## 1
Amino acid sequence: MATHKFDVVVVGTGPGGYVAAIRCAQLGLSVATVEDDRPGGVCLNWGCIPTKALLRNAEVVNLLSHAADFGIRVSGFEASYAEAVQRSRRVADRMAKGVEFLFRKNKITLFPGRGTLKAKNVVDVKGTGGVETLEARAVILATGSEPKSLPGVTIDEKAVISSNGAVRGEAAPRSIAVIGAGAVGVEFADVYASYGVQVTLLEALPRVVPVEDEDVSKELARTFARRGITVKTGVKVAAVKPGGPGVVVDLGGEQLEVERVLMAVGRAAKVAGLGLEVAGVQLDRGFVKVSPQMETSAKGIYAIGDMAGAPLLAHKAMAEGVVAAEAIAGKSPRPVDYANVPSCTYCRPQIASIGSTEARAREKGREVSVGRFPFTASGKAVALGETEGFVKVVADKATGEILGVHIIGPEATEIIHEFALGRTLEATLEEIVHTIHAHPTLSEAALEATLAALGQAIHI
Amino acid sequence: MAVTKVVMPKLSDAMESGKIIKWLKKEGDRIQGGDILAEVETDKADVEMEAFGAGVLRKILVPAGSSAPIGTLIGVIAEPGEDITALVTSVPAGAGGAAGSGAQKTPLRPEPAAPPAPAGTASAVPSAPRQAVTAAAASQAPASRPALVGAQASVGAGIGSGQGTPGAGVASAPTTVAGSASAGAPSAPSSGRLKASPLAKKIAAQTGVDLRLIQGSGPGGRIIRRDVEGAGASAAPAAATAVAGAEFEDVPLSQMRAVIARRMPLSKAPVPHFYVSSEVAMDRAWELREQLNALEGQPKISVNDFVIRACALALLKHPGVNASLQGDAIRVYHRAHIGIAVALDDGLITPVLRDCHTKPLAQIAVESRDLAERARNRKLRAPELSGATFSISNLGMFDVAEFSAIINPPEGAILAVGSVRRVPVVDDAGLGVGRRMMLTISCDHRVMDGAMGARFLQDVKRLLEEPLRLLV
């Protein structure tokens, strides 16, 4: 057992933690990181990145299935799900190694093991080689989150799996019930359905992707139905029991027999066993309470990312990591603007949004003008053969302030940033319209939807 | 791409020029927004000057040890390939022009020197002659400023003076809301273009706000939506009536008040003071303080913290005392930002404890001690030096029985606090020993009258004599 002194100790090396560590190092602070899994956290190893690899496979499979639409006849191709998972592991490994490289480059010391606060400025790391004690001026907690389950349902990662089991399992089931139609649920529904799995998507709320704009939910439900995914909304799961081909999902009357269940009902902050009580770090509804500079109720201890509350998104964690690092370095960083965090879902068609939904904007009493442009009217989308979806712009009628943008369709997750930047700079509809958009691009749909909000759309 | 002009910032209300103590960056250093460029000595304190742009510090125009008026170009930040010769060579003229003229106080586009202000205006604001000049400039030249909307122009010199002066109440208001480090940076340098977001411009056009009168809180002093929305209430002429939740309201002067305001300075210039004193029985407050300070883990609370808390509560109840003369209106503040006079070896400084009315005693104790300590170490930040709505000066530690203080314009009043003395008192039980403290409030007679000050003081006295009220 040895004691090491650093300026900053970062517990957890997910996208929040590793970005915070690197920013601290850039600002001249000595940094240690603590990780009980591989560097990169859930995002790089078990979440964002491997699932994007799987979704890319799903896209390729879909493209091959529709090769005939392009006049290409492919006979007898074979899509191996096991190899898709193996590929996604290789992608994840490569990204995790990238984090290790960045740590070396920035002279950040990695302590493998489980970090626990022993006092406000002391973190014990329990690794395979014993306990190391780290002392720091400031501690950044970034331990992330883990999948939640429904009451009475145990995730055994065999018959009832979470996203953790789903990214690891090399054998696709014949049938699966996905409980929860948020981002995680619809992405796996897409992957499984593309590999021929019979998918039933269950959602307790009245619509799929319930946090998105209602029009987006409708469009996704329609395209999923077209691809043979059974969507059941407004259903309550009463019980999940062994039986049938594997599991029986009791929907309170209807019994659904499937080989496997994917639990995608949300994530909870990983705060147990961290020693938060010792250090006097307070929680608020299960998440760590933080100031705009990401400091917890205990001075000198910061918390970022999923554990610090919604939205549970890697890019929000990274932004918070930078704020925490700069605050520790004595700068006064601009706090994260939570109203301007883009949200992206990578099912097909992709979904991306920022700001208020139309309904929410109206609830807030704003008089809005709405512009919509379907990808069926976009030359680039038609040429790609990807015409599902639309861009929807919600703006303040009087000032043209961009209140919200909701995109479903090809590369939606790339198109959204035009509006993210626009909102940061407080651009209005006019500035988007006065920006010449290259032709032919999918981003032209952003321009046209903006024009439509002004009643000036050209191509529809 | 971008060239950032580094100008001498206005770091306190009264600052007119600053002296560079030392440059913390040298020519050729790479600069990021927020980096500390230099330490600047103002009339009040040594303040760190932040960079508002990124690039390379290409040129230092005012060396360490030299002084420059606010707004003067003192350095240039730009990318290495950028041509800055025009900028650098134009300096002497620009600096000289800005130095002597009142027009530099307008955040943007200096007007030619204004004709003398009309007599009425001048006597209305004798305490701040340079404000009057600015106001005159604004009202004399509306035609040459197409962006100035009609309603704004017709408001006249008085209101214009309040808003046109970056250090006055309005200009510091957005900064307060933002709580940002960009305070002190004019939203546009005196010769630069107006930096405002498209949305801010639209809202300004729709609500009749003149953007040139607003201090931006965005990056590099850019005016953003919240700055305009914050200014809307005060800039619109109709805003004379109170707006719920607004930081202050402008109450039009009555005929009588206008006469008082004009005449009072003639009797005692520049601010007509009057004084009201009252003796406070501090026995119970003393006892309560000892009990509080015996509590483990609680910050030590001083008598002055009790006085701050009592004043904050009383100011909310008597907004007429929490007020300031702004030309032909009285600005009544809805928040108690209290300046706390701190004696220094070579002078005096009054850092501001904001929103005292919302803070419990313990917080006031912690924050006021922190402010005082940093004031003595000259470590105050620029936003902490301006924006007080009322001040307290306590000479109790010097065993001063009573004294009267000079008002710190544009505030309307200041409370002078003497020491708590053990004196013989006569009560129902006969002759005894009691603890007594003298309070003397100095009031601006243009803003308030004797009875108003007396009622306020009566309330402060009551709060201190029934000190449990300070805890609820």
## 2
Amino acid sequence: MDQVGVEERVATFATRSIKKSAKVWGLKTAVSMTDLTTLEGKDTPGKIESLCRKALRPHDDPDIPTVAAVCVYPAMVRHAKALVGGSGVKVASVATAFPSGQTHYRTRLAEVRGAVADGADEVDMVINRGAFLSGEYARVQDEIAGVVEACGSAALKVILEVSELETFDNIRMASFLAMGVLRPGDFIKTSTGKTTLNATLANNQVMIEAIRDFYTDTGIAIGMKPAGGIKTAKQSLQFLIAVKETLGDAWLTRKRYRFGASSLLNDLLRQIEKEKTGAYQAPYYFSDAAESY
Amino acid sequence: MSTPAVNRIPVTKTPKVYIGGAFVRSESARTFKVSDAAGAFFANIPQCTRKDLRNAVEAAAKAGPGWAKRSPYNRAQILYRLAEMLEARSGELVTSLVRFGAREADAARGMSVGVDRLIHYAGWADKYEQLLGSVNPVASAHFNFTVTEPMGVVGIIAPDSPPLLGLLSMLAPVIACGNTVVALASEKTPYPAILLGEMLATSDLPGGVVNILTGFRRELVPTFATHAHIRAIYASAGADDRKALRLGAAASVKRVRFTDLAGREWFSDSAQGLEAIRDFVELKTTWHPIGS
Amino acid sequence: MAATRKNSGGPRSGLIFGDLWEFDPAPETADPKLKARYDLFIGGRFVRPRSGRTFDSVNPANETKLAEIALAGPADVDAAYKAAAGAFRPWSAMPGRERGKYLYRIARLLQDRAREFAVAETLDGGKPIRESRDFDVPMAAAHFFYHAGWADKLEYVAPGRVAQPLGVVGQVIPWNFPLLMLAWKLAPALAMGNCVVLKPAETTSITALKLAEILQDAELPPGVVNFVTGAGETGAAVMGHPGAAKVAFTGSTEVGKAIMRQLAGTDRKMTMELGGKAANVVFDDAPIDQAVEGIVNGIFFNQGHVCCAGSRLLVHEPVAEQVISKLRNRLRVLRVGDPLDKNTDLGAINSREQLGRIRRLVASGVREGALMYQPPCRLPERGFYFPPTLFTRVTQSHRIAREEIFGPVLSILTFRTVDEAIEKANNTPYGLSAGVWTDKGSRILRMSTELKAGVVWANTFNKFDPSSPFGGYKESGFGREGGRQGLLDYAHLA
């Protein structure tokens, strides 16, 4: 891959001008694609309750869809499931010693089984970057296949951790390694959100091109989830434009595209409200907003 | 009945030095008094220490990679904007120079030359590469090319006369080719350098690319000489300071360049040119086979 | 270890690029500040043509009239040359440092009014606003800015010699990048101390005459730059005038040859920047998706109205099917339509005449047995439009592989070896540019060495910079524009 070429291609996505009904469609679609996330050491059942209520009812507007999923640590899966089970909002659990993955394989698998047993509909795993960077590609793929099995009927999202893979060639290779053992309904994902470089239009592009090429070759449609670093509605629309022009209409759905985010949701709601009323909104009109000023 | 006119008390300015894109006092909190040409008190100027110099070098090092990666066109536009800022405030600068003893005609001429010199170096930023770099006709089946690269953090010791034009003439070529600068302003007439800091801050120049210290040579030159992260020295200095700088440079193999220009010699066109850039770039030569 | 099930080869599946998420219109609304009538610009003032005649400038996007443009006759061209000759002595005697400042002013004033000029350029010529906004206008300003800095450094242009201005230069520019071609011509000529008489293309005169306003705001001494508008006759008068120390022409090879014949009996210096039929060569180890972007950019940027367009794709047989398939998908998301819409990728063809030429050559391709592909697209009812077009099964003998189409039409040929790629790429009377796509550095350098083209783009395409010399081999012309080398063409070396 040529890095400069990729950056130039994605720069054109940022020049698209999305207005009016197209904008509202994009914003609402982005809401429906959000995996509303809390992954902090200090998470408690109370925090999960707050997150889940927000996921089920993002704003005082019945036209706003629910988000796609809540994304939490394994210890919080039970609490989340109790609140959103049966609602259409899925419970996604990180597992496999997220975010580093640096523990024994058997421990990582056990964590996956535990989360699924507690009711997780989806599992977000991390690949073994140490093995990848040492060239042990078969091992990386075998481990993913093992997690697929441990998931049972739960969907799997495979986090490549793009900041650690560094080059676009590595990201593309890792994408194909993962897709080689994934099922329709599974996803590949950019990042844990725990390093300094997360989802960008460029690494999103590398991965969706891999998904596209895999689909044209095999007919198997794998989903995509950029995570971390997408804070504004404007950015999320640029990601959707990338999908529209690279993967086409069939991927513009929560079944095949997710945003791993937390503060993005309120910016989406803020922009939707602005399109509805014509007036720019203050952040504190939206529940769970952090800003006081 | 008319009320007597009240003389409005002017608000004086606190001079602060421009380091890391911000205006700060010395970390030592020391200042020294500066008087104008008539001997009247003007202001207390920060008396920078070697720790201030250390902080400035860190700021310059932090700003270095980003500045070197900017396109030459972008650097050219920023230097041109600096010229725009100076031209717009040239009246203020001339007044300041005269207040500190310059003849009005010299101050005005120095201002014009200074602005034009900035534009001259703005024009070099995207051209010197074609003159200093090359493709070399080696005898083997290789493509061989030489490119320039900035050296890194460059220390500048500016002359006392002319205090503004000298500093400008030295820092412009050095930053035009991608280096970052820690400069010591004139010890006798430091205030114009304070004003220059304000203009640097409004010229789109990223913080840390140029850092200007005020203070005493005897306190600061030794650290300029020995700080290993300063890769080159460009100084207007007498024999003793030159020796000290050369000795210190030896310990970290700094490149050292001195200027002999004094007073009105800085006005001449021979005080600017490609050589000032050539002295502050490295040359890198790359080979690659030509074949299938 | 769990047994691995690997997903392997299956049927090729198609992607859907439909209207699930239709974009709303997003027109650029900045005011281009057009006048109803534009006069000639001679001696620093706008003057009526002696004949009083004008011609219309039309918006190719919808065929509406934009403005009336003065038609310069021989007497007007003569007046322009006189004004330029009168301005030459003081202009060339001015210290370079001061001459440069005028060019810096022009650059800055153009940057100030960038959006206004971008809209005017799009209305007059048909190119998408995104291109005139993001490429044409900023690049034109950059050319003035770059060359401004040479004015006081002329002793470095040809070390050991003194570079002196030539006098008055006559320049004729094309309609594909009106403002940018103007900057390419004016900036080096002025930096070197020459004065100019320039004729813009007849279908795109507006931004030149708007720039004349900027020349006045910059207080450029009257007569240094003169614009005479008109068509072929005016152009011949400009090229043939005895007052020209040098002429510079950018346009079709056919007209370039006519000018060379016209001037054969004189000693006039000239530079020519003519047509092209560039080969874009993609090897099997190329970064394929980026190569596809480069191919698309190479032929569809500015609707293919580009002399250095990558109009022939030479693709390595092992990856031909893959590249062509990706190209088809990529074409399906190109948006053709109103040039003023910010989302438009392909705007209008510049004129009815040009549209006719494109249609005729495309018809020849079909007739001669090449296979045509055009993505489904809704073209506006009025205006001159042509969909992006690919031809496969093209050989070197097809007309569409030999003749410059100057439209959004790509001819695709295949090759088996590096030597064959070089042969095919060079098998043309043209030699302006070429593209090479491969991961192998030594191959890039070999191709660059052996391709007979003045510009070689490796793993990229359509990149321009004021410091980078541009110009062609063979029938693509002679002389270079940009960089230190470009200045030499405007100098007399003493």
## 3
Amino acid sequence: MSAVANDIQKLREELRDRGATVRSPELAPAERVARVKEVFARRLDANMATYLETCLHCGMCAEVCHFYEATGEGKYTPIYKVEPLRRFYRRELAPMGWLRKLVMRDITPADLDEWQKLVYDACTQCGRCDMICPMGIHISPMIGVMREAIAEAGLQPAENKALAREVLEKGTLMGIGPADYRRVAAELAAQGIDVPLDKPKASVVMLMSAMDAMLFKSAIAATAKIMNRLGLDWTIRTNAGDAAMFDWTSGDERAKAAAIRKVVAETIAAGAKTLIVPECGHGFAALRWDGANVVGAELPFEVMAISEFVGREIEAGRLKVKPLPAGKSVTYHDPCKVGRWSGVFEEPRNALKAIGVEIREMESHAKTNYCCGGGGGVVLNERANKLRAGAFHIKMREADATGAGSVVTACGHCRMTFIAGAQHANWQKPIESLVELVAANLA
Amino acid sequence: MTLLEFARGPGMQWALVIFLVGVVWRLVGSFLIARRRDLSKPKGTAYVKAGARSMIMRSIPPHELEKNIQFQHLTGYAWHLGFFATLLLFGPHVPFFQQFLGFGWPTLPNVVVLVIGGFTLAILIALVIRRIIHPVMRQISTLDDWIAVSLVIIPLVTGFLSYAHVGVFGARYETMLALHILSIEALLVWFPFSKLMHLFYTFPSRYKIGVSMERRGVKA
């Protein structure tokens, strides 16, 4: 586990250094503010207007945010993280805006510097705050708008700049591309695991993730074993790009759209009815909820997370598993983008029950689950190391309180955060992948 | 025209006009902002049920979330209930509503309402102190928060003084009553420009998040 944690730290440093060399156009401070406002004007809709009208400044959202809980600093209040968006709405879009302009100051370049730290370092868009707001304010999508606006102003962290630039210019992610997918497939073939690449037609298209290719090849092997056991007509299209979709978290809409379009085009070209996203929360949420909106039409295929797919196949009796000997207990960590963002709660738990493990739930689980602290790209943001460690302690405490033998999750991003966090905190709890656990127990 | 006559006559009429026009203007203006069509395939489609559920269930959060906000939650409920009980169930208030509506309703004994009003005032003062000292509240408070809470407190204070016939700075009962009515009018005038509008936005907002979450297959 410590080797993986070291790899993650190296990855952070490499991204930081590469990001430092990314040349963004030199923008005048006023131009940055103008760009931010353009994004706000384009993205604000009727729902956000209602949310921004109704905030009472009660501060309850802070009390469920791991970053506020870990630091006690008021600036980490979730609704405060969208203050520039609220300011823009109130002054320039809302009814009575002309009146508010008399008493409410405009967004300043200094605001952008302050808020880029708040939305990139201190928010994982986990959406836990969305669950408590007594006014029903949906905060996490507004954080997405904030990130997009900050990125448009060229102020996102170096790591995010590097990721977005790479996706746009090279089509790879963290240096991983088609040649690496082929290399991994060949390695697995040598182990007797067939990973069918680039079949012209297939009923299921599966994606590969750069994180898995670099850190968790065992997850790719496990996924392939399950797909093969089911006898599915499946393939990985090497030109589809990566499942990891860190660009979704970077705020760079062009990079996100480019990545999504590639996946959609390849899935359609394969004539697939199902697109399965491996253990990657962001990739799944990006394709599941933004895919159709990016291409401007409903998708002619279903998008599923691997944990959702495996759970359903087990429930339907198509995937047979053998129960483990009694005595193994686990706690399941719901990846925010798979759980709270996409409603996948039962399927992974049913898969775990089928293999006979005892699930000991954390106090906050399923829709109220605490984020691992690394979502939204925060795991790769070196500047956020301290904040992330604070948030991870909360997660650790809840997991420890269950007394479970290990933590199981279904997202490589969470897995990275857990492994790096565990090393930092000298925490001995094993971190397991749902798909690997299932694949190891196929009947 | 005395101050009391102004407060009861043109003052109240203008306050109500500003309140009604302002509320309609703000609601219509914000609801007219463009909607975005979501092309993703929804996971759940029982939108009305989900929206209605959120409208109710947002008042009763799950324990693991609620445990950190019990104070705000309970005091929030308590002062709202106390304020509306004082406004609507106090004997001397009902004839005021009756002249507009043409009908009245039973009231609580004055002493009960005075206790409720005192309790409400105490909670509001505690919440003001919390807003001053709590790091989150200090960070997120705006001028509107201070004005709004002041405009809720002042009618309670002037109401007590009027009822007790206590004149501040030697003011007569009629002057105190006029100030009480004027303080309500100030609340009505400020209402459409402020966060007090949550009276009208809370349930649409709760409905919207319920629908958004239903699309994702999450009960929220």
## 4
Amino acid sequence: MSGRTAFDVDLARTLIDRKRATPGGTLPILHDLQEHFGYIDDRVIPLIAEALNISRAETLGVISFYHDFRRFPVDGRVLKLCRAESCQAMGCEDLVSHLERQHGIKVDDAGDDAELHVETVYCLGNCALSPSALLDGEPIGRLDRDRLDAIVADAQGKTQ
Amino acid sequence: MSARVFVPADSSALSVGAEAVARAILDEARRRGFDIELVRTGSRGLFWLEPLIEVETAAGRIGYGPVAPGETAQLFEAGFLSGGAHPKALGRVDDIPYLARQQRLIFARCGVTDPLSIDDYRRHGGLKGLERALKLGPKATVEEVLASGLRGRGGAGFPAGIKWRTTAGINADQKYVVCNADEGDSGTFADRMLMEGDPFLLIEGMAIAAVTVGATKGYVYIRSEYPHAFAMFERAIERARAAGLIGPSVLGSGHAFDLEARLGAGAYICGEETSLLESLEGKRGQIRPKPPLPAIAGLFGKPTVMNNVLSFASTPWILEHGAKAYAAYGVGRSLGSQPFQLAGNVRHGGLIELAFGATLRDLIEGFGGGTRNGRPIRAVQVGGPLGAYFPEKLLDTPLDYEALAAAGGMLGHGGIVVFDDSVDMARQARFAFEFCAKESCGKCTPCRIGSVRGAETVDKIIAGLDREKNLELLRDLCEVMTDGSLCALGGLAPMPVLSALNHFSEDFAKSPARAAAE
């Protein structure tokens, strides 16, 4: 999920080269880059464009189209909180306001140095155990306020 | 002989602690000197019982659940390895009514077998469909799929056999088989369960399609919200390749077919087939106008058979047992079985595979046991975020393509989300627009702009501004979006809105103060 390797142009080039011959390889390359560095650094745009023989504008267009690709590094943990209908029916919006009221954490609006980034996601396919979330890629079902408090405390303790 | 214990590694089961339970069982067994074989399976789809562990005994597989990691010591003391009594004991899992009353054609193995063992897959009847398709040859296989009446399970309900016949009839240097595993609808999880619990079934179904239409390469496009399903499916592809199920010669038939799993990147629109193709080609997931149909000019401009996970996964059964046996399930023009997914505010949520024709009430009350918190049911959304909301009085609507359409809804991918009486339907209508605005690919104006204006208009109605005029405007906008959008996202976003307006008009007429207080 969120990688921790500092950005390195040579490594980026290697990752891009590995899949330059893959048909329609843009997304696989972007996923590899994000997995290694935790985000898509703007410096890879010309590299991808050249490797895939597409324009820089097209490359940026692909990166910006998909919700998954981050343009800036994030520190701390990432909690993807489902806010689709099934989780709405089980009170996910209460969790959203609890986060803000109790912990001052705004969903989709954490500072770059926040210990915990809470992001909206629409459906994790765990709808029979709503509300549902993914914490750094690990699934959580039947999420409630107590569990959320524990996640916040853990994230804040972890980076202190 | 060592006892065999089964613990799901399905991501829903993991989300409530299955991993810790598996570890605790192994530790406890070691401490007590028991020799056990721990098998990680998919889920049976009885999610309120997860983590649901099973033990193989002379009387069959006995279940215990939901099990907490701290309960494993007690379970050993109760002699669970030979099916001993315990408050969490569920008896024979196959006899649990929720499961026993289902008609599992696709999900027969899910939660039973080791998803990554080809031997287990064969032992439980796997590969017979593909073997028969190879024996029948392409023409007869297409006929079989046509005669079965199988319709696309992704939501559109288009006959699968017609797609296959179209692609099979074209001469091309390259053809593709693409599986749409971008299961983005809220309240659906059948594709995920299958990819995690019985991935070889999907591979077999895709191989049947490939040898039938003459495709040599296949892609499975899996959404990134399913990291476990993706990892599991990649491993399954490797195993299938090593076992010769796919590769240069499918089961030694001389047909070449290889498969690759591709990860989406969080765009709901990529569940629309032409957006998915664009995404696979490495582009923005913007939809393509149709025609040309993907069956004629699809991935990289080549003829492409595209189906949903459940459509491909239905074909091995059809080929093994014959079209006639398959068409014996279901009603009217909705034939075969449909894995329904019951979610939201419901006591017993899970996967319910049944022949078409059961009613919403059968599922929600008969299987689901009503709402989880015991409050009255007020609304039920069927078919994902673009599906209609049904009021309680329409719960006797049968679940088949035609009956749902007649009731102003759609089956979609078979997701059913239950809401209790605390739901505010004006808010739900607003959300439908908000979701559409966020996920619109931007290609056509009715969807891109209409969704934004729709949310604003609902806001005005909620605030009590020019209510009558704005309600009229809202209906007009819905008509424009329905008729003028290029694809189903903009075209169907009005469906939940209109159903909310038609069945729950009182929620659009509250005084602003009352709406704010609630």
